[in-house]
Amino acid sequence: MNIGARTVGLTLASSLAAMSVLGWSASAAAEPLTGVYRGEVYSNPEVVNAYSTWLGHEVTLGQGHQAKDTWGNIENPSWQLSSWSTWVNAKPGRRLNYSVAMFPSGQGSLAQCAQGTYDYRFKTLANNLVSYKLQNTIIRLGWEFSGNWMPWYSGNGQQANFAACFRKIVTAMRAAQPSAGFKFDWNPNYDISSSDLAATYPGDAYVDYIGFDLYDQGWNGAYPVPAGCTGSCALSRWQSVWNAQFAPALSKFRTFAQAHGKPLSVPEWGVNDAATHGGGDNTYYVGQMLEFIFNPANNVGYHSYFDYQASDGHHQLSDVDSRSGHDFQTEFPNAAALFKSYYVETPTEPEPTEAVSTTQATVSPTTVTRGTSFQVSGSVTSSTARSLVVKYEIRNAATTALVSEKSYTAQAFTAGQTRAYTTAFTIPTSLAAGTYRVDTLIFLPDWSKTLLYRNDTPFTAK
């Protein structure tokens, strides 16, 4: 069936009206990070930028998935990390959302992992992430572990081993790179049982986000929506699936996350084509998901739409093609319009600029010698009591390529306090002489938002 040719009777206007009745407010504070999966970008991370152009919103969280075939592609997937490093470091505030395998298919077990057998491999991964300047990555460790298609499936009596494996890997990566700022997302599927939810949880000390993946696939007989079923006919089927499958799951995860004091995440979600038990151009699903994600009461830290035509389901809303152009035609036009309308039509509430300020960074000596250490100094003032991340970067002034960086995490400020920072940097002799610059960046403590960015300190390296 050609879903793209079918007309869905529920209009965008009526969907927006319904969301208004539900109390959805797009201008809520502490807005979740918006991410996207656009396929494995390899050497073409520009597809994420093209998605931002389509959305009308700067997407700062790009998602990648590790291969599950070899240990080499888990410990040091240089082909992948290099591409993501290029994208992340091209603009301040960007981060990688990285799905990390626990072991390759057929080459390991949760029991061995739980004993620490693979610790050294994940220390290597941590070192490589930092080597590629991918600090602050959100790591979806053993993602979708409640699915029996994953090598690290937590069912069949493996719940305790999964939890122990998760703890071992987190501990190993933190030990290897204690200042890297990695965040770990514990991420089953939405339909995990409450008992398994508790049995596989590794403990609050090892988890930064509690995530769930949720695609619009229905199993109660309402999907696929038959040809000719439009308007209220389609809506009743969409609501049936939502009420039977998704609403109880969202409530379950919200309660669980609140009990553990953790933010939620939705690392993968998307509409689904009819051929794979999906609801098709389902504006009701998109509206309900956005209402949940952007409701501050649910404390969602980030979400990432799966904007991709996968072999096991079509989900793409954007017009972005494989060349980073805009020639793709979605089969879900109404859902796409509703999703995009949030970002295009509703401005986000800006962070108060008066809350934090910095002095212009200084470089000593003013002309530096490559291969020789020099000092960068600056100060930060916060008008309110809060915790901040202070970061200094050295970049090539012409190409903006990142040369070096230093982050000061968990910097506690009292109201009106000024804190001074002096950092030693060295420009390698392998880099050309010329003009470089110092960038000063201030982030919220969880790196979720850039509060201040300035790049007004050029200097010469000889």
Q: Could you name the CATH topology of the largest domain?
A: TIM Barrel
The name of the CATH architecture of the largest domain is Alpha-Beta Barrel
Mean pLDDT metric: 89
First-residue to last-residue Cα separation: 66 Å
Structural class: alpha/beta
Largest sheet: 8 strands, parallel, barrel
Number of domains: 2
Features of the shown structure:
signal, 462 residues, GH, alpha/beta, Coagulation Factor XIII, Chain A, domain 1, five-stranded mixed beta sheet, 2 domains, 28% helix, hydrolase, single chain, GH26_dom, TIM Barrel, eight-stranded parallel β-barrel, disordered N terminus
Textual characterization of the structure:
A hairpin with a 6-residue loop joins strand 18 (434-443) and strand 19. Mean pLDDT is 89; it is low at 1-29 and 345-353. This protein has helices at residues 12-21, 46-55, 72-75, 78-88, 110-114, 119-131, 159-176, 194-199, 232-260, 283-293, 333-345; strands spanning 33-37, 61-65, 95-100, 138-141, 183-186, 209-215, 264-270, 300-306, 309-310, 313-314, 356-358, 362-364, 367-368, 374-382, 386-396, 402-413, 418-425, 434-443, 450-461. The protein is globular, with a radius of gyration of 23 Å. It has two domains: 3-345, Alpha-Beta Barrel (TIM Barrel), CATH 3.20.20.80; 353-461, abc- transporter (atp binding component) like domain (Coagulation Factor XIII, Chain A, domain 1), CATH 2.70.50.60. By secondary structure, it is of the alpha/beta class. Helix 6 (119-131) packs across helix 7 (159-176). The chain has eleven helices and 19 strands. It has an eight-stranded parallel β-barrel, surrounded by four helices.
